[in-house]
Amino acid sequence: MAYPLTVFSFRVDWGGTNIGFSEVTGLNIEVQMIEYRDGIAPEYSTIKMPGLKKYGNITLKRGVFANDNEYFDWLNEINLNQIERRDINISLLDEEGSPVMTWNIINAWPTKLTSPDLKASGNEAAIESIEIAHEGVKIANG
Fold first, then answer.
1. In contact, 20 and 9? CB cutoff 8 Å
2. What is the full per-residue pLDDT of the chain (142 aa) written as tens digits?
3. CA-to-CA distance for 83 and 4, rounded, in angstroms?
4. CA 109, CA 134: separation in Å to the nearest integer?
5. Domains and CATH numbers, the chain
6. Predicted TM-score of the model (pTM)
7. Upper half-sphere CA count for residue 121 (Cβ side, 13 Å)
8. Is the separation of the CB atoms in 79 and 94 below 8 Å?
9. Beta bridge partners of 86
């Protein structure tokens, strides 16, 4: 019997230190819709055509480590139309740790950095996140 893949084993190659991420969200693709009707159409309604593709921003979350400023350093490089764009590979892994499905993110760059919430009575790990804009996703499955 075949079972679906689990979501808890994945690897992110983001062009920085090889550190584990705790969460990746925003791997979505949308095709925008165009409604159109010409004046001589016999129907009194519009037709719907596919338009441009739209890619959502991706959020990468990971634990905060001492002397690790890679998120901040990458975000801090932005200087009026100049940024280091990176291709990012996100791979879903099987039980042996081999990639089964890979999302190739094209021309990614950071748009937002979120530091952890600090709470004196807290009991959880400090997690930081970076939101990344990009220009496309290629998916390889199998």
1. no
2. 888 888 999 999 988 777 789 999 999 999 999 999 998 888 889 999 999 999 999 999 999 988 888 888 888 888 878 888 999 999 999 989 999 999 999 999 999 999 999 999 999 999 999 999 999 999 998 7
3. 38
4. 6
5. 10-141 (2.30.110.20)
6. 0.85
7. 0
8. no
9. 108
